[in-house]
Amino acid sequence: MVITTLLVSFIIATRRISCMALDQALESLKRGEFVLLYDSGKRENEVDMVVAAQFVTPEHISRMRQNAGGLICLAIDDILTKSLNLQYMHNILSRSADVDSDSKKMIMGTAPYGDHPTFSITINHKQTYTGITDKDRALTIKEMAELYSSPDAKAKFVSSFATPGHVPLLLASSGLLAKRQGHTEMSVYLAKLANLTPVTAICEMMDGQTYKALTPEKAQTFAKQNAIPFVDGKELLEFSKVR
Known about the structure:
Residues about 1-15 have low confidence and may be disordered. This protein has 9 helices and 7 strands; from the N terminus they run H-E-E-H-E-H-H-E-H-H-E-H-E-H-E-H. Helix 2 packs across helix 5.
């Protein structure tokens, strides 16, 4: 009886801690600040820096370059995907008559951890120059976020953006975490929980000493040193199931 009571108390306390961490993450996103998001040891086993795209500035891009070092991408939810008629890159290539049958064997169906890649096209805003500078990428990302609430999003997308570019678009699965549990879906889900535009800029954290992805342990140390909330994807998934 005593052991059972202690176990229940431990579970309740753990859930309170998890909710506190999630609340801190959502408040950080609302302030236009970063959150660190770990997916799972059964997936990429990586931690991404995440920020709501509607708040992105050149400083955000600079920090992701220097403190994360992975690929800076833009994750968008299914509503915007459909309004812009965007497609996954692996589908675009597989349907293209310009890609020969031998070359189509290169197209990735699923990643080594079992998920399909969420990459679509890459873009630059037409007001950018090369598209790769911190200022250029910040403009492209922020302008894409503003399309979400635009009644003529498709027309503005075609007239304001060019492809190929320097910002890869990632398409979140319809149903988000119920269908796929990647950084794309998790980051968009966090933005929705925070009542923000469900478009996020994300970047994998790399380790300059091991030349591999930064471990969750090192990422948590970085998070504490820099007062950045750390979100465990496993806990976020459990939270989504309860909701």
